[in-house]
Each structure stands twice: as C-alpha cells, then as structure tokens.
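Readers outside the structure-tokenisation community will struggle with the description of the input data as it stands. Showing the layout once, in full, would remove most of the difficulty. For illustration, here is how one protein appears when written out as sequence plus structure tokens:
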Amino acid sequence: GLTNALGCVVADLRQDFANIYAYARWSDDLADESGGDATAVLTDWRQGLDRCFAGRPDHPVFVALARTVTRHRLAIEPFADLLDAFLQDQWCHRYADRGALLAYCRRSANPVGRLVLALADCRDTERVALSDAICTGLQLINFWQDIRRDRRAGRIYLPAADMQRHGVDETMLDADRADPRLAALVREEVAWARSFFDRGGPLTRTAPRVLRPAIGLFLAGGRGIAAAIERGRFDTLSRRPTLT
C-alpha cells in the first residue's frame, strides 16, 4: 500500500513516506525471511531503532529515517509497536477471538496510519481513530486474502471462536477449495473488515489535503480486495484475489 501511495504524495513529503516505508519493509523482511525464529534479529533491530532515536543511527535505513523523525517530530512508539507485532508473529500463530486479533492489529497496522498522519502534523484523537479503523480494516482484509499463504506459514488469523461457530476446523484450510462452511465464515469476516472501512471513510474528507489522495488509495485498495474476494464467492483457497 505505501509503495503505490508514494505516487499520490506531493514531492515535499515523498521522501519521508519512502523512509517510513523502508523501515516497515525492512522490518517485515527480517521477520519473514530469516529462515526460522527471527526473535534475535528483530531484537537487534529494535536496539538499532533506539540508537536511531538517540541520534546515533548506524544502518542506512535508520540514517534516512532519522531525518524524517527529526523533521516531523515523530515519536518512537509507532515504530516500536510495529516491531512488537513482528515479534509476536514469532510465537503467536493462533487467535482465540476477535478481541485478540484486534489487539494485534493495533500494533501491526494502526501505527502506519498514525505515522502517515503525523507527516502532516495531524495528531488529533478523532482523525487518528478514523485512521486506525482504515488500517485495521486493511489488515483484516489482507488476512482473508491470504488464508492459504498464512496457513502454509503455520499461521491462522481466522479467530478460533468464529471458526468454531461456523463448524470450520483447521484441516479445511488445507483443501484445494473452500468448504461452504469456510466460505460462509470468510463472508462474515469480509463484512467485518468492510465495517472498519465504513467507519474510517470520513478521513478521506477530513484528513490534511496533502494526504487525502494517498488515504483514498489505501481505502480503495482495501475495498477492491473485499470486492475481489466476494466475486470469488469467498473462496480464497483456490485462487488468491488480487487487484490490477
């Protein structure tokens, strides 16, 4: 999402967008491409983040990020929250209910939106809440898009309580196509994600003007994936829904 949004951002902020994206991308890659438990490498990266905010960046990503942090007076918390979520992925592979999943989204997704708003010095509670809703919706719809991919990585983001209510067990996620019970569950989860898009939608009108095109792109992308899942009859096992 941040990659595509760069083209919608005015030149004055584009490099700052890119610096935040580089941090998020590098952190995500450390978590997913370490070839095993990434706890140690993520812990070292977290120490690098501390050095960055202490004025001693020692990695190219942090050298670039330090300029953005200073220019926009960014706090360390959103960056640290992202790393906490990546660390959680190393040991937490199942979620008991929606509340547990939302707690994860608050650290894995919402910090990105808060950082984007902060680039335009937008930090008021109301608009941050709208951003949180959009980001949570984006994270959820990504989960429902990638059920097969996550399963192969040993992770299931479908809440266990929802699975039980629909009569879905983990073995159904290994099939070539979705069982009707799984499709019914995904239909419900997509509606849940869309409710967050609806809740956060006003941000496209109330955010600082410089950010509205990018936020609109984020929201349109999420809605587009939801529509693609629906067109596929909520079967994301046989074919991963994507956008052009």
